[in-house]
Amino acid sequence: MLAAERDQRILTLARRDGRVVTTGLARELGISEITARRAINNLAAAGLLVRVHGGATLPGRLATPADGSITGLVVPTSDYYYAKVIAGAESVAAQLGTRLVLGVTHYDRETEQERVRRLVGLGVRGVVVATSTYEPTATDTGAWLDSLEVPVVLMERSITYPQTAREYDTVRTDHAHGGVVAVRHLAALGHRSIGLALRRETPTAAFLTSGYRDTVEALGLDGDAPFRALPDLGRDPAGADVVLNLFLDDCLAAGTRAAIVHVDAHASRLVELATARGLRVPEDLSIVAYDDEVAAFSMVPLTAVAPPKQAVGAAAMRLLQSRVQSLADGSELPVQHLSLLPGLAVRSSTTTYRR
0.70 cut: is pTM over it? Predict the structure, then answer.
């Protein structure tokens, strides 16, 4: 069971029963009490649970809202990256006393519009949307957003004039800063050449690349370090292996002893491929993963840039609440664009550069 799936199960049980008990949770999920306690502590640190003796409770009561209010949340997927985003939104919805209704679009624009129409038909008071289209030139998506007659908060997206006539509250992760964090960590360990391998077609890639390049230049590092665009590991595992091996070849040829790999599943596979070739991680190659879903479970636990996913979902719900309240009482509220910074989880995959 992946950590994200486990956390979702824990939150579901907490909502069902009002609390979770560490010993019962271990039996229910088939995990050790130590793992259950650690998971509860992580969820409590994220504000999704409140620690009590022997377990945890929800931070707010999850009763059916007395006023029957409904809030919409529309996301491209409900797993991996967005599972924790959804959990963060759910926690705030519970505190606010509104029922959260989820729509999943699978990155399809027609499905997205159908999901939002359905939510509007249910009478939602507003919608938080991570649009299926994330290009900054998304004119069609901008026109569609402008046509909606309910308050909208954009999450992990930034669509603005001239693509939209209106301005929207937004909350997103500053992935460029994530690139900065990764490069600075490796540079502080003495690495002067830092390779980059990433899933180029994702909305994160362009920002990560920008932060990486700006920091490499600012620190006077090797601007010609190896770079590779990676295939989707889930859809094309053989192709991903080919490109990751080519990336290893590039690093060995260039004398590059450090790499940033997006996403963490690819970074974990890179550890396996490097080890199979007789390379040691981190002694021969330090690796920083971008994203922290499975990084801790790699053959060598991966140092990872960790986007604040739960905080993004929670902040988006609070932004929507503020917007709904301002419309209800007629108060003036400036449009807000929130940018949340990723953190860095340092584990065993990075070390000081030694010639």
Answer: yes
